[in-house]
Amino acid sequence: MYAQVRTAFKIEAANLTSTSKYTTLTPHKGSITSRIVRIRAAASRKAIKAAAFQTSSKRDILPAGPQVIEGTANDPAPVPTPSPTHGSYHWTFERLMAISLVPLTIAPFAAGSLNPIVDAALAGAIVLHSHVGFQSVIIDYIPAKRLPRTRALFWWGLRAATLMVAIGFYEFETNDVGLTEAIKRVWTA
Amino acid sequence: MPTPAASQTVKELDAYHILEAQRRNRPVSPHLSVYKAQISWYLSGLNRITGSVLSGGFYVFGAAYLCAPLFGWHLESASMAAAFGSLPVTAKVLLKFGIAMPFTFHSYNGVRHLMWDTGRGLTNKEVVRTGWTVVGLSVVSSGILAMM
């Protein structure tokens, strides 16, 4: 087995030098690359041993799907293109929305109730905050790479739900007494 | 003199297939149960759980209110207040505490998160202290709200 692993890593090292633009990385004896290759081979042997002598029970709560190899076994994981719209701007927008909820949440406790515009702003902010929160949950638990169709289903399902809820609260705000006043009436009933 | 290891010759392509098989069989990281119970990650998990429960309830009500005329449900504030008012006092207090607890916790912990976003209070000691502060504040204010 060791010989097989060693051969595999030799090929890996060769592949590294042939595909890399840093051709100076040829793993000659004593070089860093050859040391890394040896360490990796040793780690791999350890992993094989550990797997063979694994005695603790295995609980597959969310078992990993089949692992696939894209390209060759030696390709690095792709780095996504940097995009401020999906990165820092999105993050800042999330924070601004959360910050806006602080005064909107304190106001009804301080003033007893809210005027219709501020009440509608509170309901709208909660809808947006919930939508972004659910998005984070979906992103974390339904990986797009492994479960693309499930992800798309939940993503569009969430959009539909948010739209429905937004219309529902528009109706509630325009036909009923408003969110904070309704909570107050039910709470003190 | 080292003992010669038993070995066999493998063709380069076969060796590559062994490597591929190994790459496909990488270990999966263990589940949460391997970690020691600590307030830092417990509150982080609770923040998501309480947020999801509150937003879930909010979504269910918003969608149900929109569909109410179709099914003849009465979800307007007057009938909900009447229904809630007819419950026994114990049930009212327990229900109010059950709603106030996730709401106050998520609100206080949200402010704690916003504080972290400005780079403050990130040492282990501060995280533990502010964590217990949030728990204490949530329990006390939920108790007050439940009695209102």
Automatic annotation (TrEMBL), chain A:
Stretches that traverse the bilayer: 153-170
Any single GO BP term: tricarboxylic acid cycle
Pfam family name, one: CybS
Span of the signal peptide: none
Ligand binding (a ubiquinone): Y141
Binding site for heme b: H129
Protein name: Succinate dehydrogenase [ubiquinone] cytochrome b small subunit
PANTHER family registered for this protein in UniProt: SUCCINATE DEHYDROGENASE, SUCCINATE DEHYDROGENASE [UBIQUINONE] CYTOCHROME B SMALL SUBUNIT, MITOCHONDRIAL
UniProt GO molecular function: heme binding; metal ion binding; ubiquinone binding
Subcellular location: Mitochondrion inner membrane
Family to which this protein belongs: Belongs to the CybS family.
Cellular component GO terms held in the UniProt record: membrane protein complex; mitochondrial inner membrane
UniProtKB/TrEMBL annotation, chain B:
Lineage: superkingdom: Eukaryota
Broad class of the protein's primary localization: mitochondrion
Residues that coordinate or bind heme: H106
Location in or out of the cell: Mitochondrion inner membrane
Protein's membrane topology: Multi-pass membrane protein
Note describing how the cofactor binds: The heme is bound between the two transmembrane subunits.
GO MF assignments: electron transfer activity; metal ion binding
One Pfam match: Sdh_cyt
GO biological process, one term: tricarboxylic acid cycle
Protease listed as a keyword: no
Keywords: Heme, Iron, Membrane, Metal-binding, Mitochondrion, Mitochondrion inner membrane, Transit peptide, Transmembrane, Transmembrane helix
Alphabetical list of CDD domains matching this protein: SQR_TypeC_SdhC (cd03499)
Cofactors required: heme
Cellular component, GO annotation: mitochondrial inner membrane
TM helices/strands, residue ranges: 49-72, 93-111
UniProt keyword annotation of Membrane present: yes
NCBIfam families: succ_dehyd_cytB
PANTHER family to which the protein is assigned, alphabetical: SUCCINATE DEHYDROGENASE CYTOCHROME B560 SUBUNIT, SUCCINATE DEHYDROGENASE CYTOCHROME B560 SUBUNIT, MITOCHONDRIAL
Family per similarity comment: Belongs to the cytochrome b560 family.
Protein's name according to its UniProt entry: Uncharacterized protein
Species the sequence originates in: Heterodermia speciosa
